[in-house]
Amino acid sequence: MKTFQLNNGNTIPAIALGTWKSKAEDAYEAVLHALKTGYRHIDTAMIYGNEEAVGRAIKDSGVPREDLFVTTKLWNSDQGYESAKQAIRTSLDKLGLDYIDLYLIHWFKGYDKQRASWQAMEEAYDEGLLKAIGVSNHNVHHLMHLLEHARIKPMANQIETHVELQNEFLQAYCQEHGILIEAYAPFMSWRVNDLLEKEDLQEIAAKYGKTVPQVTLRWLYQRGIVALPKSTNKSRIEANFDIFDFALDDTDMERIRGLNRGKKMFTEFDNVPY
User: Fold this and answer.
1) CATH fit for domain 3-257, picks 3.40.640.10, 3.30.710.10, 3.20.20.100, 3.40.1480.10
2) What is the pLDDT of residues 75-130, one digit of tens each?
3) Given 28, 39, 48, 125, which residue is catalytic?
4) 117, 119, 122, 123 alpha-carbon torsion, rounded to 10°
5) What percent of the chain stands above pLDDT 90?
6) Is 48 a catalytic residue?
7) Where are the beta strands (DSSP E) in the chain?
């Protein structure tokens, strides 16, 4: 499995199975199959309601814990110092794990909550309960504030990233500060058909004998971005993992760059109503 390095020296697998909107039993089967296929990175969150199922699948897979990388997230209603400490313990219990490989603040919900939650996460990191800590859905100004107050620098920022929302400026800022970008909705989520119908991507996929989704995942990998494709379909889970036997040339990378529209589908980070 190809990996990237976090700023604390730990490695993170370049492809993860996403589990957003996967019901418990579907998540269980998907994680079990993904681990059988060769995935070693599973992404979940408290709000997904499937941490227990993910934990069961990890246990039943027989894959050694030290070979796995598990990400989960602090939900908005749990942000704050004491509530974040409890949320970390709850996620550990539900997952059935002694530690979480990467724990993220799920959404920006104000600077006070950000600072208090981060302090709790730093302490859990010091205790070894969290092997890496980071954020999700944070823009440059949110990160600037966190970096100003943090004792431990965030290691990752998980954000909506796909061919129509390429986040080059945000990625450049994160790279400058040693923060790895993770891409959720790499297939444009509910607009996946729009992705599949793009002629540029179809032509590039035909050139390499790959599918459009495989090309978009490879494009993210070559940008140094962790991709989080979500699926409960076994054949698609396998296909999403099969991106390491080819490389896009510079012309094709630039051609995909030309598809950027700055087009966001999910909530603006400063205006989260939940």
Assistant:
1) 3.20.20.100
2) 999 999 999 999 999 999 999 999 999 999 999 999 999 999 999 999 999 999 99
3) 48
4) -110
5) 100
6) yes
7) 3-5, 11-13, 17-18, 41-43, 69-74, 102-105, 133-136, 156-160, 180-184, 226-227
